[in-house]
Design goal:
single chain, 120 residues, 6 strands
Length: 120
């Protein structure tokens, strides 16, 4: 089962919407991590086996320098970052073949308005 950790730069409502479709999702603000350093969020996602959901490419850089197991990351690269646009992009990802690949550790999924790219 996919478990998600939404970064502080993502709307808490996006995490709520993920939960509404049956996904185990939490927002960093719900666990008292709304203002901590990126490395702490990344380590929490890795330790808990959660996929990190963010707008921030810095987490991809953290993944590249972290030894051992690493959390998978979903990065939204959207020009329009309104709740409606992010929700639509998230649903596109959820319905795509890329969703199944997120079970593996260390995957990066980049979601833009027009495509979904998967890197391992």
């Amino acid at each position: 089962m996919v478990q998600l950790l939404f970064d502080a730069n993502m709307s808490r409502r996006t995490a709520e919407e993920a939960r509404s479709i049956g996904i185990d999702a939490i927002h960093v603000s719900e666990i008292g991590m709304g203002s901590v350093e990126d490395i702490q969020i990344y380590e929490t996602a890795t330790r808990q086996g959660r996929i990190l959901v963010t707008f921030d490419l810095d987490f991809v850089r953290l993944m590249s320098v972290t030894a051992g197991q690493s959390a998978s990351i979903i990065v939204f690269r959207l020009t329009d970052q309104t709740l409606a646009s992010v929700s639509n992009a998230f649903l596109r990802l959820f319905r795509s073949d890329a969703w199944a690949l997120l079970q593996a550790q260390g995957m990066t999924v980049i979601v833009s308005e027009h495509r979904i790219r998967v890197r391992s």
